[in-house]
UniProtKB/TrEMBL annotation:
It comes from Candidatus Roizmanbacteria bacterium CG_4_9_14_0_2_um_filter_39_13. This is Pantothenate synthetase. ATP binds at residues 30-37, 146-149, 175, 183-186. GO terms for molecular function: ATP binding; pantoate-beta-alanine ligase activity. The gene is panC. Homodimer.
Length: 286
């Protein structure tokens, strides 16, 4: 395993002439790595010859300075956690990624004002911009994204399609703690009590899923049910609850596979989670 800090060096190594047996699997991260990231790495390892992880806390995707400052920075532990499982760890500096004359950014269309886009203005533009840069530097065969950030996965998939980028975007099911809490770098900011409260979010999503599987027809009734359960959680502030198609289209009636997405503050920590619900009778959580 090698830690690479220079963008040029990373590009040179990654773009060495490759063949079908020398594929690259890429996992972009912002560090504070946990078992969810390890699941992405495991899948990349199975499907590619070489695995590259980037660690870059992207200032452009934070809505405000204080959120950026509070983001956990654990580079040494991160390297220790993943070094045996990857070929390269790319840790670029902000001034290499965004030199002084950097100007353009990606526009994310309908996602600008929807769900995460509504509550985190500029987030997806910043996220898509850095992901595009990283994909251009590394040119991986496959890039892996956790489905906990479901809308991010959809935005990146759309970007790759719209700009004819030759990388397959792979969504990896959410890894949960035994309690059901979706793993997230932000969980480290929860107190023990808040963590216990947060574990109930997934239980509420599972209840909603079974209501749908038992024949509920109206997405708005499900949204109301989930919101009413979430507001009962101590210290909670609900930002959104949405029942959408797998492509995140609004639904008038429940008629296709769908995803229920939520964003809720527990205390000071903003958590997002989701559950996929098949429209058929049987289906598995992710
Ligand atoms: O999901 C994340 O950690 C970030 O949004 C990503 C994809 C690494 C881009 O900065």
């Amino acid at each position: 395993m090698n830690v690479i800090k220079s963008l040029k060096e990373m590009a040179k190594i990654a773009q060495e002439p490759s063949n079908s047996k020398n594929t690259i699997g890429f996992i972009p991260t912002m560090g504070a790595l946990h078992n969810g990231h390890l699941a992405l790495i495991r899948q990349a390892r199975k499907e590619n010859k070489r695995v590259i992880v980037s660690i870059f806390i992207n200032p452009k995707q934070f809505t405000n300075e204080s959120d950026l400052m509070k983001y956990p920075r654990t580079i040494e532990q991160d390297v220790e956690l993943i070094q045996d499982f990857v070929d390269f760890i790319f840790i670029p500096s902000a001034c290499e990624i965004y030199p002084q004359d950097f100007q353009l950014s990606i526009s994310v269309g309908a996602h600008t004002h929807d769900l995460e886009g509504e509550f985190r203005p500029g987030h997806f533009e910043g996220m898509a911009t850095v992901v595009l840069k990283l994909l251009n530097i590394i040119r991986p065969d496959r890039a892996y994204f956790g489905l906990k950030d479901y809308q991010q996965f959809i935005v990146v998939s759309q970007m790759v399609k719209d700009f004819n980028i030759d990388t397959k975007i792979i969504g990896v099911p959410t890894i949960r703690e035994i309690s059901g809490l979706a793993m997230s770098s932000r969980n480290t900011r929860l107190s023990d009590k808040e963590k216990e409260i947060s574990t109930r979010i997934y239980g509420i999503l599972q209840k909603a899923k079974s209501v749908i599987l038992n024949g509920a027809q109206n997405p708005q009734d499900i949204e109301k049910f989930v919101a009413s359960e979430l507001v009962k959680l101590p210290k909670s502030k609900v930002e959104y609850v949405a029942v959408r198609s797998l492509q995140l289209a609004k639904m008038k009636v429940i008629e296709s596979d769908m995803v229920i997405l939520v964003a809720v503050y527990i205390g000071e920590v903003r958590l997002i989670d989701n559950i996929i619900v098949p429209s058929g009778i049987q289906g598995a959580d992710h």
